[in-house]
Hints:
This protein has 7 helices and 2 strands, in the order H-H-H-E-E-H-H-H-H. The protein is rod-shaped and about 140 Å long.
Amino acid sequence: xxxxxxxxxxxxxxxxxxxxxxxxxxxxxxxxxxxxxxxxxxxxxxxxxxxxxxxxxxxxxxxxxxxxxxxxxxxxxxxxxxxxxxxxxxxxxxxxxxxxxxxxxxxxxxxxxxxxxxxxxxxxxxxxxxxxxxxxxxxxxxxxxxxxxxxxxxxxxxxxxxxxxxxxxxxxxxxxxxxxxxxxxxxxxxxxxxxxxxxxxxxxxxxxxxxxxxxxxxxxxxxxxxxxxxxxxxxxxxxxxxxxxxxxxxxxxxxxxxxxxxxxxxxxxxxxxxxxxx
Length: 278
């Protein structure tokens, strides 16, 4: 191929190829800067994008599980609050039952104490029946069924039992307005009605407290996992903005120089005209 040809301009071809490569690199750099990602889609890096999508799915599942755990936390908090009120009321009831167990009180006083005691037991029933959260009451469950709580994005469960507090606690003291001196005295023993109701309430406070602690710990753990996943995802696909900024400036200069070089190369055949001037 002749060096001096008007049909084939090798210099322009080389300059154009270089300019095209620079334009492609500039477009890729601008994409990274505009999206903030080194790998924004499968065209950038198919393998890295596939890994990133899997991690995003895991993060979404873990976040969803944590949202559900937040609901369970609310349910357990309501349950513990109700049990705490039941416990406080039982202590007040015990004070009155002590008076009912006294053989020196008058019939009128007994009637008054029985009425006070009955009001307290009504309060206990109300606390139990009102311990609902999002339409669910695990303190007033006659079947004492198992509650399955999803704990993470992998579908693992944590199970605990609901409780029939009306039967196990309220029914123990529901007839207090009819207790005479002997019944009241018997109710105060460790195995008596009041003693049993208090023991069962404290036991469930401990149980539901343990359930709540587990849920709190799992929520904290899931958040730590999400932070680690997000950090790993960033290391995999995020763009180094400082590096991309420097690269953008360099490519813009290369593009300008490439444009100039192409212009010079395109002018080269013009010099051949001088050979044909007379």
